[in-house]
Amino acid sequence: MKGLVQAGALIVVVGLLLWKPWSSDKSVPTGSDGEVTKSADSGKSAPNDVDAGVQAEGRADKGKPVAKPGSEFYAKREQLLVRLDAAKNCQTSGDCVSTEDDPRAGMFEQEKRLVEALQSIQNLYASEQFEDDELAAITGEYLASPLGRAQYQAVEMMQQQAPNRQNAETLLRKLDDSYDTKVMELALDELARYPELNESIDDLFVKNLRTGSFYVSRTIAEGITPYLNQDNLARYESTLAELPPQSAKARLLSAAIERYKKSSQ
After folding, report:
1. Tell me: the pLDDT tens digits for 224-262?
2. What is the C-alpha separation between 145 and 70, in angstroms, rounded?
3. Helices 148-159 and 133-143, packing angle to 10 deg
4. Which three-class secondary structure string do you get for the chain?
5. Rounded Cα gap, residues 155 and 168, in angstroms
6. 98: how many CB neighbours lie within 10 A of its CB?
7. Whole-model pTM?
8. CA 164/CA 138 separation, integer angstroms
9. Which of 47, 89, 188, 197 has its CA 20 to 30 Å from the CA of residue 249?
10. What percent of the chain clears pLDDT 70, i.e. is strictly above it?
11. Residue 159: CA count within 13 A, CB half-sphere
12. Where is this region: Disordered (predicted)?
């Protein structure tokens, strides 16, 4: 009997020595539960040496960073900023050249390089679950880009960060005369995070429903249900009454209003 007691005590001691908490090595911030981001261009080139080891394993935390990354992060970021700056100036430097046969070749090459550099910067930050004023400033700059794919990439970057009112206002201004349905569709998801800008958002949507391009106005009408509320419902119903009744945007807006009414009963 005494031997059994001693053996049991030994097992307990060994178990206590081997056990350690689940998260003792490295904490994982809340929110790292998905893929980094979809590409604005499914045909992007493979990452180069600068990107090695940078691919993110989760969606960036939208809260405050747990800790600043190490020196390796800042060294990689500096390389990527140099690449982004080179892409920004590649038409004037002669690296992105147009030809008589294709006068827009230089612009398309610049757009491609910008998107690749922005994706690499986004992946670098996401891999560290980190964001800062530098990332917000880069995002804001390219939200205002006249190049559609670069602007789209900036909206994707914006989605990975904590809400930033200044960047949201920049996006609203640039969407005022947008003809890019892909950017507008992505913006419909992002702008829902800014209820304090509801009035400006409604102004943008109503203007585009009335006078916007065919595809952009249709995109807004189709995705507007989450933005409807008791305060703006009458305004959208009034807008609906002004639209050609058989138009696609009128049918989509009418359906969105009906969905909202049913959900709010």
Report:
1. 999 999 999 999 999 999 999 999 999 999 999 999 999
2. 31
3. 150
4. CHHHHHHHHHHHHHHHHHCCCCCCCCCCCCCCCCCCCCCCCCCCCCCCHHHCCCCCCCCCCCCCCCCCCCHHHHHHHHHHHHHHHHHHCHHHHCCCCCCCCCCCHHHHHHHHHHHHHHHHHHHHHHHCCCCCHHHHHHHHHHHCCCCHHHHHHHHHHHHCCCCCHHHHHHHHHHHCCCCCHHHHHHHHHHHHHCHHHHHHHHHHHHHHHHHCCHHHHHHHHHHCHHHCCCCCHHHHHHHHHHCCCCCHHHHHHHHHHHHHHHHCC
5. 10
6. 14
7. 0.73
8. 13
9. 197
10. 75
11. 22
12. 25-69
Tokens 């009418």 -> residue: 254
Confidence class of residue 9 from pLDDT cuts 50, 70 and 90? very low
Q: Is the pLDDT at 212 greater than 80, yes or no? A: yes
